Amino acid sequence: MKRYAIWPLAALVLLALPFVFDSGTSLTKMSLMCIMAVFALSYNMLLGQTGMLSFGHAVYYGLAGFMSIHALQILAGPSASMPLIVVPIVGAVTGLLFALIFGWVSTKRAGTAFAMISLGLGELVAASSLIMRSFFGGEEGVSADRSKLAAWLGLDFGAQIHVYYLIAAWTFFAVLAMFAITQTPFGRMANAVRENPERAEFIGYSTQMIRFISFCLSGTFAGIAGALAAINFEIMNALSVSGAQSGAVLLMTYIGGVGHFLGPILGAMLITALQISLSDYTGAWMLYFGLMFILVVMYLPGGLAGLIMAHEPVVRAGHLQRLIPAYLLAAVPAIICLSGAVAIVELAHHALVKAATEGPQMSVIGIEFSSKAPIPWLVAIGLFVTGLLLSRMTWPRVRDAWSEVHLLMKQS
Amino acid sequence: MTATIDQPQQSPTAEKASSALQLRDVRKQFGQTEIIRGVDLEVQTGKRHALIGPNGAGKSTLFHLISGRIALSSGDIAVLGQSIVGKRPFEINRLGLSRSFQVTNIFPRLTVFENIRCSVLWQMGHRYAFWYGVSKLKAVTERCEQVMDQINLSQRKDTAAGVLTYAEQRALEIGLAIAADPKIIILDEPTAGMSRSETAYAVDLIRKVSEGKTLFMVEHDMSVVFGLADRISVLVYGQVIASDTPERIRGNQAVREAYLGQAEEHTA
Amino acid sequence: MLELILFSSLNGVLYGMLLFMMAGGLTLIFSMMGVLNFAHASFYMLGAYFGFEIAKHLGFWIGLFVAPLLVGLVGALIERFGLRQVHKHGHVAELLFTFGLAFVIEEVVQMIWGKLPVDYRVPEALDFVAFTMFGTTYPAYKVFMLSIAIGMFIALLWVLTKTRVGLIIQASLSHPHMVAMLGHNVPRIFMLVFGGGSVLAGLAGVIAGPALVTQPSMAALLGPILFVVVVLGGLGSLTGAFAASLLIGLVQTFAVAINVSLSDVFAFMPFNPQVGTVLGDLWSVTVAQVAPVIPYLLLILILIFRPTGLMGNRET
Predict the structure, then answer these.
(1) pLDDT of residue C108
(2) Among the listed ranges A367-376, B8-17, B214-223, C79-88, which one has the minimum average pLDDT value?
(3) pLDDT per residue as tens digits for the range B129-152
């Protein structure tokens, strides 16, 4: 029963958030997080659930977004019949339609071939966005005014707070639906196909059909995300079908963790938050994302969710306190190393990019120094190297603590 | 050398009814090498039929041909009267033929329970349904628990299949083959790598679950073969050199020369 | 018309050879290690930028020799300390690693050299007209590029067919596991192939930089085309990669020169789709505008109908 409680709780949190974070920017941030969460979850239906790596998922998100923005244009005006709240259905249908067409072709192959087909399709659609100016609107994109649609319960959804609730509601039901699908016969077989596509054929299932259905469902929910984005931003441009957008959702999902249902939600929230706030502090935020992604791929293939969930059995067995001293010890050199790395990146960024316009002086915590002088560089590199070396010494402690905990858990 | 099939002549329809698996002049070549060189074999319905032979004879290849993993170069294979040439593995499975693998081929990160559950879903009619949950399906859960009981893995039902011991994984292999209640069970060296007691348990299990069904298996352990089989076929260099009852196989000169050896310790 | 065909053929072959300089290395890496190196085009970009930087201080010719070697060093280090670590997590992880790498390299290049194209110039020694035909000139630098590319091809052929290492690499192309079991130091061969591929890509960048634009997006523009070439040519086949490179090079060069659209071809028909509609867009688009997309169409078609590519012997 405790597991089911998470849903009403989540609904409550979504309802209550605007009372805690009530500024315009917070509302926009939360709306964007919801949209990206749906997008990332739809992507994980392919990657984490069925084992299909796609480099062109933005196609379904973007095309649905464009279809929705055109729908907004059409539905606006005095003869308008449909209120805003049903527009995401347009997105869902568009996503499904294109997934049916492209999916039939893509799922004929698996593995790297499938990934390459998805890349090719993504590039095709992205390139066609420059050709089909009537649908994609060229460089400026297509815009609409959501408040011009028929009112619903007296609301015209011009205000961000109303749009937030619309998005949050659709997000809630989309997430619920996607979770429910994982618990169905199809959802279970999708996992089986991921684990051993060959064996799945010998127990009566067509692996291609499973992949195709997965693809279509995934496209449908990506379409919902696209429609919500159209509603939120009231503008759609070629960026939303681009390779960059496909790369972004891959990044988000992988960093969050492909092995757990919550992973993509975590990743979407984290990356969206960082994207919005980090860009205020540093111009090198894209570089940080890339480095973060590489580190996760190399050392943390389960993502954040994987890291957190690895502790679940430990917490349940009550042994978490045995890990904490080792963690605290390892955290110190890790933080030193991280500060060193950030310092190097920031110094480099400042010296190379900002110095041209602002001059070589920069300040951190009130201390002024030149980004071209040797001392700050020596400090930064020193921090990084020292942190790295010390980390190598403390890391075995963490490993030992884990071995100890594993032993204890085995015995009990 | 061609096969010696000890079969009284039967009318075609009666023949179809009594043979669960029929191989006619089956050939398979990889590049220039012919691995299966004209195999004629018949497994009668309800019988337990073993396939033995030296390493490299092509036994696993034959299994792959029957289950659809690889395509025939020429010849015909009929499962329950239907030709399976050109059919995909899932199509053959849906006809009622289920197999196990010599090299364990399970779903590593799914639990034992989920492994078994996946293998019963199609046969129990659930197809590709994504609109209702699977945990509420009582019939499915009951069947899974029954199978896990049979293969003695009920204690480990929530363990990921990848971390099971080797013997447990072999048991799961058998479980995946029998769970969907198939008409024909084909097992590829089911007791490979098992200890004596594990083998005895496996033989017991195989005997029980193949009651009233057709069993076709490859085995190296002669005690298993002679203990279980109603008929034995011997495959040497891609051809069946004998197909007969166990006693007559044991006494067959050609078989002894090619495989069993002259010494007496190979008796069951 | 003849002039168009002649020059387009020359340019097409040149473009194709450039593609092969990169696709050859990529095919080797993909066939041997199973890794589709997303960052391969990034090595091309690094070659161009390193070449530019060295040319600024020490001249083009030194850059020509040093820059590719530097890129090779970077490639070898990445293989040794990055890819090898990721290898145990599987092919998907390796793919994602190179994907992230391409991303990071682009960001770093942007940071160091800026977002705008840099002024990487043709060296004075080569800045003249090679020949004139039908009134159009053909620059000597392009002839130079062609000769370097051909020279590299011959050298690669010699290494692969006449040296011991080359024979091992050839064997690894179609049977990587067998080669490992024969006792060869496969990790070292991997590092060699990865580094070698990077050198070739870097060389392509050094010579292409002055002719094409040297900018941070050059990797992202060329990357997908490289994959098309490798897939089209087929796994395990360098000749396939060669054929595919030339094919794509010629097709794209010719397509860009053709400014014909459906409306031009069917101008005699009374029916004319409206401007501003989807059909109108499709009707009036020229072949030249569609040219960038043609390789991807080919990619998808090949993967569906002939996944072994033109000459490959293993499926992707």
Answers:
(1) 92
(2) B8-17
(3) 999 999 889 999 999 999 999 998
Task: Answer yes or no: is A296 within a domain.
Answer: no
| pLDDT (tens digit per residue) in A214-232 | 999 999 999 999 999 999 9
CB C309 within 8 A of CB A162: no
Give the chain B residue whose CA is nearest to the CA of A180. B133
Same domain, yes or no: B34 and B90: yes
H/E element, B40: strand B33-44
pTM of the predicted model as reported, rounded to 2 decimal places: 0.90
CATH of the domain at A136: 1.10.3470
Kindly identify which residue of chain C lies nearest to residue A105, measuring between CA atoms: C304
Tell me if there are at least 3 CB pairs under 8 Å linking chains C and B. no
Does residue A80 sit within a domain?
Answer: yes
Give the residue numbers in A contacting C (CB under 8 Å), as ranges: 53, 105, 108-109, 111-113, 115-117, 119-121, 123-124, 127-128, 130-135, 243, 247, 250, 254, 284, 286-287, 289-291, 293-294, 297-298, 301, 348-349, 352-353
As given in the structure block, the two tokens for residue C199 are 């050198």
> How many angstroms away from the CA of A393 is the closest CA of chain B?
31
Contact partners, residue A155, CB within 8 Å, separation at least 6:
A162
Distance CA A84, CA A71 (A): 10
Same domain, yes or no, for A179 and A146? yes
Residues A220, A360, single domain; the answer is no
pLDDT in tens, B27-45: 999 988 999 999 999 999 9
> Residues B86, B1: one domain?
yes
Return the SS3 of B3: coil
Q: Which domain holds residue B168?
A: 99-181
One-letter amino acid identity for B220?
Answer: H
Q: Which of B195-199, C71-75, C279-283 has the highest mean pLDDT?
A: C71-75
Number of structural domains found in chain A: 2
**B243 and B220 in a common domain:** yes
Least reliable range by pLDDT among A160-164, A318-322, B148-152, C12-16: A318-322
Q: At what angle do helices A24-44 and A160-182 cross, to 10 degrees?
A: 20
DSSP letters, C70-131, are HHHHHHHHHIIIIIHHHGGG-HHHHHHHHHHHHHHHHHHHHHHH-SSPB--PPPGGG-SEEE
Identity of the residue numbered A291:
L
How much is the average pLDDT of A367-392? 85
